[in-house]
Amino acid sequence: MLNWLRKILSKEIFPSRPKIIHCHVCFLKATHTLRIISEEFGSEEEPKEIIIKICGGCNEEIHERYNSSE
Ligand SMILES: [Zn+2]
Predict the structure, then answer these.
(1) What is the model's pTM?
(2) Cα 66 to Cα 28, 29, 36, 60, distances in angstroms
(3) Where are the domains of the chain?
(4) Which of 1, 11, 23, 61 has fewest C-beta within 10 Å?
């Protein structure tokens, strides 16, 4: 009977806030998702997929490092 009221109250008490995702590296606001696949050659285990959130600056830095041939 009071379900509708409870719903309204719970919305008031716990307003849905937009979630801010922070960069995994520098804790600025993240704007990119970086997917890393970690696989051990010769292992029968499934490759591990790691997803981290990073900001634009760190994304560029990682790509620069990744693309530079050493
Ligand atoms: Zn960052």
Answers:
(1) 0.57
(2) 21, 22, 12, 10
(3) 17-66
(4) 1
Residues lying with their CB under 5 A of ligand 1, a single-atom ion: 23, 25-26, 28, 55, 58
Burial class (CB in 10 A: 0-12, 13-18, 19+), 47: exposed
Model confidence at 56, pLDDT cuts 50, 70, 90, reads very high
Q: Which helix (H) or strand (E) holds 44?
A: none
The token pair that represents 36 in the structure block: 């890393």
What is the whole-number distance in angstroms between the Cα of residue 33 and the centre of ligand 1?
Answer: 11
Q: Which residue matches tokens 């409870």?
A: 6
